[in-house]
Amino acid sequence: MSFEDVIAQATITTERLCLRPLTPADAGLISMYGSDKRVAENTTTIPHPLPPGSTEAFIERSLAPNRAEDVWVIDGKDKQNTLMGLISLERMDRDQSEIIYWVAPAYWNTGIASEAVEALIAANPQASRTIFGSVFQDNPASARVLTNAGFAYIGDAEAFSVARNSTVQTWTYLKKLD
């Protein structure tokens, strides 16, 4: 894959953050944080322990021209290679997207996730009319991120967590943008 093949993805800035597209150079920090059991167990897709090469494969999929998900690094605005976490929008049908995010434990309870979610919603780079979000019920901090960004609770569900190797109860949220 050449750089020219990659679909242009917007860089989004806030007062403290820069949401920027992934690069292969991000693999080290993504692997370090993704290897943290606390991070992996709050996601559906990150395995624990993190297998060798999985981060590089994730980055390659995230940069593919036919990708279904746009992924941004949550980076400090005034520092390079801070990598505080990742945030993404997965395309769905009918102008809908699902927002997915995780923040490294060193940045928990700092407002970083809220600022990143609000910035991505405001930019609306996929021109979505509706954005969904889902969080594990044992992670109320992530639920607050969504409700503080104006998402409305729409119900309970469940999702499989690879790291936990089990189905976990979730809360689902929705935000209409039109």
Number of strands: 8
The residue fraction in helices comes out at: 10-25%
Shape: globular
Give the spatial strand order of the biggest sheet. 1-2-3-4-5-6-8-7
Class by SSE composition: alpha+beta
Through-space gap between termini: 36 Å
Determine the mean pLDDT: 94
Which band does the percent of strand residues land in? Answer: 25-35%
Largest sheet data? 8 strands, mixed
Rg computed from alpha carbons, rounded to a whole number of angstroms: 15 Å
Count of helix runs: 5
Unreliable residue stretches: 1-6
List the helices and strands in order: EEHHHEEEHEHEE
Distinctive features:
disordered N terminus, 5 helices, eight-stranded mixed sheet, alpha+beta, 8 strands, 178 residues
Describe this structure in words.
- This protein is of the alpha+beta class.
- 24% of the residues lie in helices and 33% in strands.
- The chain has helices at residues 27-34, 37-40, 54-63, 112-123, 140-148, and strands spanning 12-13, 17-21, 69-76, 85-92, 96-103, 130-136, 152-161, 166-176.
- The chain has an 8-stranded mixed β-sheet, covered by helices on one side.
- Strand 5 (96-103), helix 4 and strand 6 (130-136) form a beta-alpha-beta unit.
- Helix 1 crosses helix 3 (54-63).
- The longest helix has 12 residues, at 112-123.
- The chain is globular, with a radius of gyration of 15 Å.
- It starts with 11 loop residues before the first strand and ends with a strand.
Quick recap:
With 178 residues, the protein is of the alpha+beta class.
